[in-house]
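Reagents: none. Just compute today. histidine kinase.
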Amino acid sequence: MPSLSAVTQDPSQLPGLALLAGLATPLWLARVEDGAVVWLNGAACTLLDPDAMGGPLRMMPAGPVPATPVERAVTIRCGGGSAALTVRIGPVAGCDLLLVEAPADSAARQEVARLNEQLVALSYAYPDLRFELRRDGGILDFAAGNPAEFGIPAQRILNARFLNGRIQDVLPEEAAGPLADALERVVAGAPAATVDLRLSGNRQAGGDAVFEARLVPLGDDGSRILCILRNVTVRTRAEHRAERAHRLLLDAIDSIGQGFVLYDADDRLVLFNRRYRDLKISDPDLAQPGTPFERLLRDGVRRGLYRIPPEQAEKWIAGRLALHRNGGPPMEVQLADGRWLRIEERRTCDGGTVGLRTDITDLKARALELAAANRRKSDYVHHLSHELRTPLTAVIGFAEILRDRLFGPPDNPRYGDAAAQIVAAGDYMLELINNLLDLARIEAGALDLHEEDCLPALIVDATLSMMAARAERSGVTLSARLPDDPPVLWADPSLVRQMLTNLVGNALKFTAADGHVMVSVEREADGGLVLAVADDGRGMPPDRIPQALTAFAQLHDPAHDPMTVAQHGSGLGLPLTAALVELHGGSIAVDSAPGCGTTVRLRFPPERVMG
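Predicted 3D structure written out:
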């Protein structure tokens, strides 16, 4: 910083003098002590013309020094010449100099004012902030639309312009660094450089503001650089909103459980979601944006992706292309690996195509299972009608015998046999209907357990006592094997006895005379309890066991199984028993082989066993 005395001796050291030099108003500096004019700007030289006056200029009178600018009549003398002027005089802070402002030509001043107004209006109409820079960032010239958007006072830019300041020193600190880096790239030879400058907390911009700075070299030697700063806050925010909306849309498409794919109006692939990719119905290397749909389709057919006969491939492709291009009802197709897909195609308003791919393999399997179950039920209804018709025919026939006294007098003992046949047929029908109702209640979740402490030994004894007469008629031996200290079971005693009754009844049905049926109670190592019924009857193949445990399934064919003709049954014993033990949290296991008998085990979990 120059000293005050040095400034008085050499006014060129006065800060801001370059700014005064370019003004259109005539300005000069005069010493207080003698009124000598020590500096003039260009407009003052034109007005006073020292060369024409022939020597140094002196302003009389010079003093006294006013505290604030005042108008004063003075005389400018030079050698033998002089000129009278009314000027405006003000002090120069910190030194013994006066700043003198002389009025310019009125018409010229008005023209300059008009041009300045037009220039300001033009600058504000063009929103960019434009700088002409030196290679080091020094400001040679500028045009500002609204420098306040940067939080930069206009005076700061003016001072930098006239005091050879750099743009790095004018911009806010957070923008100066990135702009200096871009300037270095252009100075190093880059044809252009663009950088985004983010200014935080700009109140006029409504929060964070973003400016785009573009720098390009000027002239053949690149000694000058044009820097254009443009406020792109609105555009950037719109782009961010659009990008976020696009990202949300892609995330939403990715999260749906169906395969999604989109083709444009030229039938070229645009995008697909993760589920579509996971279905593996297109070659990953080929399924790229821009690939035509028909190419993808034919590639899949060529690779054997679809289960279609080779001779029907072209016909199938034609139908598939028609659905894709025209839309229509969903199409189901089976893949070579056994999976089934439902394909839906819809046209978009701009001529594109949106498609959904749904894996319906499980639905197809359930449909097949349902169809098989319906067939089994139909077969069972046919069998059930026979099972009910036979005892009903007996009931009606023997009842007619009793009604019409076809055996003669009432004391004929054959009437007792007829009544016994009616009772037996009625018991069979009642058992069949009860089993059907119990199974239906279990499947509907409407069968409640009435649990209490049960003694398995007592349930076994009661079951064997009830089945003893039937076993004696069949010539089959019944026995039991019980532990010395049998545990207590927490269960529904009536349902446990029903389970044992069903198993013992099945065992007696398929065990020939002189056979043996044993009921046992066993404690497992983990604390569980097993009730088992074993027979030495004819048994069944292991692969038929799942069918035996299925409701509405008939395991034996009466046409090829003479035993089942005499020992007919409903076929609900094992399925109902399995459902009842599962209702107790247990399980059923069947071991059987032809000629080796059958063993059925009911396992109750440890939490139901006490003692």
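The chain is about 40% helix and 25% strand.
Action item: order primers for follow-up constructs.
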